[in-house]
TrEMBL record:
Name of protein: Deoxyribose-phosphate aldolase
Enzyme Commission number, as recorded: 4.1.2.4
SMART domains: DeoC
GO MF term set: deoxyribose-phosphate aldolase activity
Reactions listed under catalytic activity: 2-deoxy-D-ribose 5-phosphate = D-glyceraldehyde 3-phosphate + acetaldehyde
Native organism: Spirilliplanes yamanashiensis
Pathway(s) per entry: Carbohydrate degradation; 2-deoxy-D-ribose 1-phosphate degradation; D-glyceraldehyde 3-phosphate and acetaldehyde from 2-deoxy-alpha-D-ribose 1-phosphate: step 2/2
Record's keyword terms, sorted: Lyase, Schiff base
Length: 292
């Protein structure tokens, strides 16, 4: 199946992504787009220096970014921080995502990956962001990668599974399309671009290819899969460009936090600044938002 996929027209994909990035929207639509983007944010902290106190503060911001503002979609943390986040998010409706499966490298035995996943779910995570074994994928061991995703999906129980492709390490757009279809076939609820831990993270052409993949998968199977670009998306302007791409490629049905997310740590601050600008007519000072 994977080798039967059509090749990606690199020039065409890059030109279409660039063209969609030039679309402009009206001011009234911009306000709606900013609030939608806020609702799509997976507010993320994945640092070795994370503490329960930092995670609780991030969860408070996720629940109420500012007055009269919608909450974000989820908070994403390491498994060790899940208990603190679960307590802080209880009753909020904000999802709790945890990276797992030897994030970010994925270089661990399957038993370790499954234990990592089960522990995060048991501690309160209702979404798991797993990483594929890029080394196995690049070696052509597609069955191994597929079977690992199937096993992790089973270990998730009722938790949703986002499969991180780490597109910056896959080499070319054909592999991005191939990995997208492999992950969907193995049971992914979302396909995600990147860990944010390698220099090449989310890009418009890569996200376009993944959106085309979920569109075509739905046409073939009737099952909608979500897409999550992560890493490097920092401004409201960029976020709105991605929303235009979602609408024009997968369709308006994907313009919901159930099917599209932004993996980000700093994007929310710019969205809040631009939201205040639309409301007041001027930019607030640098202390308007918290530094995460």
């Amino acid at each position: 199946m994977l080798h039967g996929l059509p090749g990606v027209d690199r020039v065409g994909a890059e030109q279409r992504a660039a063209m969609l990035g030039t679309r402009s929207i009206k001011t009234t639509a911009k306000a709606e787009a900013i609030d939608l983007a806020i609702r799509m944010v997976d507010l993320t902290t994945l640092e070795g220096a994370d503490t329960p106190g930092k995670v609780r503060a991030l969860c408070a911001k996720a629940r109420r970014p500012e007055a009269d503002c919608p909450p974000v979609a989820a908070v994403c943390v390491y498994p060790a921080m899940v208990p603190a986040a679960a307590e802080a998010l209880r009753g909020s409706g904000v999802h709790l995502a945890s990276v797992a499966t030897a994030f970010p490298s994925g270089q661990a035995p399957l038993e370790v990956k499954l234990a990592d996943t089960r522990a995060a779910v048991a501690a309160g995570a209702d979404e798991i962001d797993m990483v594929i074994s890029r080394g196995a994928f690049l070696a052509g061991r597609y069955d191994l990668v597929h079977d690992e995703i199937v096993a992790v999906k089973e270990a998730c129980g009722d938790a949703h599974l986002k499969v991180i492709l780490e597109t910056g390490e896959l080499g070319d757009y054909d592999n991005v399309r191939r990995a997208s279809w492999l992950a969907m076939d193995a049971g992914a609820d979302f396909i995600k671009t990147s860990t944010g831990k390698v220099p090449s993270a989310a890009t418009p052409p890569v996200t376009l290819i993944m959106l085309e993949a979920v569109r075509d998968w739905f046409a073939q199977t009737g099952r909608r899969i979500g897409v999550k670009p992560a890493g490097g998306i920092r401004t409201s302007k960029d976020a709105i460009k991605y929303l235009v791409m979602v609408n024009e490629t997968a369709g308006p049905e994907w313009l919901t936090p159930d099917l599209f997310r932004f993996g980000a740590s700093t994007l929310l601050n710019d969205l809040l600044m631009q939201r205040a600008k639309l409301r007041t007519g001027h930019y607030s000072g640098p202390d308007y938002v918290t530094l995460d």
